[in-house]
């Protein structure tokens, strides 16, 4: 197993964070409300999580990354949510986030939208994750509940995960409607944190619903190209982009600053109950879009399968 780096994150109060996010979102959305609330019951629709909330020992796992696709696609890089939960010292954690499926499990690659409660000594894992893949025959996309075909909790290449005990508790509720700026919903919040906190690292995870409108979403084709990727641009050219329709439930992890561990600054994948899902880029309906999100800051960030730590 490769080295793991543990970073202690800066954790402002929820009230303070709410103020920072409000200020940032107001630059891009005309109608914004940010408040500290009791987490709604996330077992209910549209979330359908296997746990009620996203509170308790909040932490982020940044596993692998584009480094596992450029220049060589590392199909052999397979990770297990249950193992990650133990590595971050939170066995049985509920994890949400964005990653890729294990090529070894599926025999193809696809987007993975994580919503999974890791196993404990006494209980098996509950995997409510979704995978989005491209249908090679006609280029359309397909969204599938992972556990309907596969019984493991594996993923490949990378995942950006927010982990918690899955408890209820206080969270930051964000409502943002009508976009007038260029940044997407997540970038707005991430940039606001970076501006406020500089080289202190603030890491946030949570879930948001695009309640109204449409979004630009990509899905990885099932096969990697024969020539190696040389750049992020090569990967972008290979991806398939679609316009998908609300309501989309988005699992998001973002950090304000990377002190040199090849951290992913933001990563958001979505699923739905009508067959849409994949990697969220931005909404395509700025005038009518409505976002509703629930977020919590993490206390620790675990960099797993990252670059060799410098000594
Ligand atoms: Zn992605």
From TrEMBL:
Pfam families linked to this entry: DUF1907
Annotated ranges, domain DUF1907: 20-304
GO cellular component: nucleus
Keywords: Hydrolase, Metal-binding, Nucleus, Zinc
Annotated SMART domains: DUF1907
InterPro entries named among the record's database cross-references: C11orf54_DUF1907
Chief place where the protein resides: nucleus
Any one GO molecular-function label of the UniProt entry: zinc ion binding
Cell compartment(s), UniProt: Nucleus
Quaternary context: Monomer.
Protein name, entry field: DUF1907 domain-containing protein
């Amino acid at each position: 197993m490769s080295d793991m780096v543990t970073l202690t994150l800066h954790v402002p109060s929820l009230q303070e964070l709410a103020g920072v996010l409000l200020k940032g979102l107001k630059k891009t959305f005309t109608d914004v409300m940010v408040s500290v609330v009791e987490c709604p019951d996330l077992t209910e629709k549209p979330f359908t999580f296997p746990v009620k909330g996203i509170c308790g020992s909040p932490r982020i796992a940044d596993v692998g990354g584009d480094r596992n696709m450029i220049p060589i696609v590392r199909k052999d890089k397979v990770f297990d949510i249950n193992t990650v939960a133990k590595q971050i010292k939170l066995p049985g954690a509920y994890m949400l986030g964005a990653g890729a499926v294990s090529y070894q499990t599926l025999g193809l690659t696809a987007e993975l939208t994580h919503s999974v409660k890791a196993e404990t000594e006494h209980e098996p894992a509950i995997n409510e994750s979704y995978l989005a893949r491209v249908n090679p025959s006609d280029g359309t996309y397909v969204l599938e509940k992972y556990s309907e075909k596969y019984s493991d909790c594996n993923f490949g290449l990378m995942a950006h995960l927010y982990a918690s005990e899955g408890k209820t508790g206080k969270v930051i509720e964000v409502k943002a409607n009508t976009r007038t700026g260029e940044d997407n919903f997540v970038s707005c919040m991430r940039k606001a944190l970076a501006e406020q906190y500089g080289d202190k690292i603030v890491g946030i995870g949570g879930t948001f619903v695009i309640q109204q409108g449409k979004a630009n979403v990509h899905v990885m084709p099932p096969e990697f190209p024969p020539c190696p990727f040389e750049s992020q641009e090569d990967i972008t050219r290979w991806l398939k982009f679609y316009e998908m329709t609300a309501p989309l439930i988005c699992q998001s992890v973002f950090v304000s600053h990377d002190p040199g561990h090849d951290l992913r600054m933001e990563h958001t994948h979505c699923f739905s109950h009508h067959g849409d899902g994949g990697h969220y880029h931005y909404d395509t309906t700025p005038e009518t879009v409505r976002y509703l999100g629930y977020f919590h800051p993490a206390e620790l960030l675990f960099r797993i399968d990252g670059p060799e730590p410098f000594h």
